[in-house]
Specification:
Helix content: 10-25%
Strand content: 25-35%
CATH architecture: Sandwich
Oligomer: single chain
Number of strands: 7
Number of domains: 1
Length: 132
């Protein structure tokens, strides 16, 4: 015959396991602060500081600017509004995006930079190990 304490211990372990599983199921996965959805770029400033004098660069050649992206807000721009130095517009149908970064100034004057990490192994460059 089992002691009464064993049943209570099993119940406590079962409740603890259920609590762990439930808390893991409720966990939110944060999205990337820079997202691309078809022709729209979204920048999500989740920080508590405003980003001032914002420049967003595609492939270090095409740029769009914004005076600021306030704290806890989003900024969106169509990709065809990105312009190169001589006025050429970015064509998202024909030009692959290999580099995407944001530069800005924080309220205290310090520079801020955020770069989007692209998944390796996508496309021909990934299949060839990044070599052509």
């Amino acid at each position: 015959m089992k002691s009464p304490g064993t049943r209570g211990a099993r119940t406590a372990h079962g409740l603890l396991l259920a609590l762990v599983v439930a808390s893991a199921a409720c966990r939110t996965i944060e999205t990337d602060p820079i997202t691309l959805d078809r022709n729209i770029l979204t920048v999500d400033n989740r920080t508590s500081q405003d980003w001032n004098r914002v420049e967003i660069w595609i492939n270090t050649y095409y740029r769009v600017t914004a005076p600021s992206v306030p704290a806890k807000t989003r900024f969106q721009a169509p990709l065809d509004t990105f312009v190169a130095g001589f006025g050429q517009r970015f064509n998202y149908h024909r030009t692959p995006i290999k580099d995407l970064r944001i530069t800005a100034t924080l309220p205290d004057g310090k520079p801020f930079e955020l770069k989007k990490e692209f998944a390796a192994g996508i496309g021909l460059a990934g299949a060839l190990g990044g070599k052509r």
